[in-house]
Every structure is written in C-alpha cells, then in structure tokens.
Amino acid sequence: MKWLKAICMVLAIAMLATGCATEKARMASSDSKGIRNFTDWMLSNPGARNSVTNGYWSPDPKSAPTDAELAKMLKTALLPGSAHMLTPAHFLVIRDYSEQKKILSGMDGMASEGTVAVLVLADELRDKDHHQESYNEWYQQMYYGIMDAGYSLGYLNLAAISMGYRTHSYAFLNIPVDGKVDFSNGGKFNLIQGNNWDVSKYMKSKDGSTKFVHTVGADTMGKSGPSSKDIAADGNLTLLAVMVIGKIDPAKVDTVSSATNAIRPQNFNFWDPQDGKTFGNVGGLPPIDSPDTVSAATKK
Q1: In terms of CB atoms within 10 Å, which of 52, 103, 108, 299 comes out highest?
Q2: In the chain, what percentage of residues exceed pLDDT 70?
Q3: Phi and psi dihedrals of 48, rounded to 5?
Q4: 91 alpha carbon, distance to own chain's centre
C-alpha cells in the first residue's frame, strides 16, 4: 500500500502545481490585459490624461478622493524601488481648502472644495549641515531623491487617473523662503540644498497631536545597523512640488475642454530601429486629429 500512497501523493502534488501554474498564467494574462488596456486608453484620451486647467475643478466636497482611495493611490505611488532605499518620496495630504489656496499662491481655480493637495517631498537632498538627523556615521547627499520622487509622482498620477480622478502638479508655491514669498522659487535648485521652504506646519497633524516621521530603509543603516529607522519628517525632508487631485465640474465643462492646452510632441527616437529607417521624431507634430496632439476642441 505504500506504493499506492506514494503515487497518490505525486499525483496530488502534480495537480496542485498545475493548478498554481494555471492560476499564475491566468493572473499574468489578466494583469497584462489590464495594463495594456490602460495604456491604450491613455493614448486615446488626451483630455483625461492632461493636467486640469485652473478653474475647472468641481467645488463639491464629495468630488475629493476619500482617505481610503488616497491611501490606495499613495501606496501605489511608493511602490517603485529606489537605490539602497536612500531617498524614497514622502507625501503629505492636505484637505483644508484655505490651506490649499495658501500653498498654491492664493490664486482662484488652482484648487477647490472638491480637491486635495498632496505635498511631494524627498529625503537626503539637503546639505549635511541642514539635514538634522544622520542615519549611521555618514550622510550621503544625492540628487536621486528628485528622481525617486519623480517616479513616485508619475505613479501617483497614473493611480489617480485610473481611479477616475484628475490631477494638476505645481512647482510655483506660495510657501515663504527666508520669510519671503517669491513666485519664481519653484525653479531654483539651491532651495533643495538648504533649509528653505518652511513646511513645518504640515509636518504634524492639524490638531498638533502627532508628529510625522519618515522611515529610512535598510541599506542606509549599514550592514551592522537596524533594518530601518524612523526619522523626524521636519528638518530632514525637502519640498519639491504639489499635486492637486479632484474631479471636473460636470455642470461647467466636459473632460476634453477642461484639459490644459498643451501640445504633446512625439519626442522619442530609436537609435537602431528594427527596420533600419524609422528613427522616431524628426521634427514637427503629428496630425491635428491625432490623440497625441491638442485637438481643436481643447483649444479655447
């Protein structure tokens, strides 16, 4: 009977393995189809994929994403890996409309009662003298924080769009530098090297009860260090930009005409294409009716 038990066991394992393989294939096929469909949708919907024009946000507070939806978006945004986990992005969500307006230069239409503003921050961008906490016995200032935050911001944008929301990102922020507001601050690289933008107000909960922390990954600690470490968000993180998330006011404008009036040149090239001659962009724009350009309906 031992041989019969052995055969049954082998058959059971084989069936289980086949079932797992089939399930993996099904999931892979489903996932691939979903990603492919989303890519096709993005290419054929220039209005939905472009930034929302100022003034077209829905004013309805119910148009803003819920905390659960935002958590899903932000978890997705933080999935991309970063080198040695040194400079992962950090997001701060602000619902208060009056605060959103202050951050966004106080201009009407950049946010609404139906939006949230997400501050985009990164670690290890400051000069050592301005970074208030070391991880081991060294501090490695790198520009990778910008790249990693850029990856995460892109994923956040895709996550928001895939969940039915729209976005607009800004770098010209109404946050004082050395006590003064300069609307040209967004393009000054030196701002991320020191302790310039004062966002300490948002580094703790609105009621002041909870100070926010930023978790630094394993490799930053060194081989003999702990697997991770929580550092204070304030004094270590650097503000880079802000993304507004919400929905279009359906009573005012449609999806296409609410999009920013911006061209989308096909700026890519193949150095050695398969056919030896289709090198990509050689100047100019696609036809006006192409989904990769601004349609006539988008122009105002």
Answers
A1: 52
A2: 66
A3: -75, -30
A4: 9
C-alpha closest to that of 216 among 234, 225, 233, 228: 228
Please determine, for residue 10, whether its predicted confidence score (pLDDT) is greater than 60.
no
Tell whether the torsion through CA atoms of 79, 80, 82 and 87 is positive or negative.
negative
Q: Side chain identity at 39, as an amino acid letter?
A: T
Q: Record the tokens describing residue 259, joined without a space.
A: 């999009």
What sign has the CA pseudo-torsion 221, 225, 228, 231?
negative
Residue 142 is classified by DSSP as -
Q: Residue 207 in contact with residue 77, Cβ under 8 Å?
A: no
* CB neighbours of residue 153 within 10 Å: 20
Per-domain residue ranges for the chain?
Answer: 2-44, 53-246, 262-300
Q: Report pLDDT for 15.
A: 41
- What is the rounded average pLDDT of the residues 39-48? 78
The answer to whether residues 122 and 145 touch, using CB atoms and an 8 Å cutoff, is: yes
Other CB atoms within a 10 A radius of the CB of residue 178 amount to: 10
- From residue 298, how far is each of 86, 93, 157, 243, 281 by CA, in Å? 41, 30, 20, 22, 23
**How many Å apart are CA 119 and CA 134, to the nearest integer?**
23
3-state DSSP assignment of residue 211? strand
Residue 124 and residue 278: Cα distance in Å, rounded? 42
Instruction: Decide if pLDDT at 151 tops 70.
Output: yes
CATH topology of domain 53-246: NADH Oxidase (3.40.109)
Output the six-digit token pair for 150. Answer: 């850029």
What is the DSSP pairing of strand 166-170 with strand 238-246?
Answer: antiparallel
The full length of the chain comes to 300
| Per-residue b or e along 93-121, where b marks 16 or more CB atoms closer than 10 Å to that residue's CB | bbbebeebbbbbeeeeebbbbbbbbbbbb
Q: 261-294, pLDDT tens digit by residue?
A: 666 677 778 888 899 988 887 777 665 545 544 4
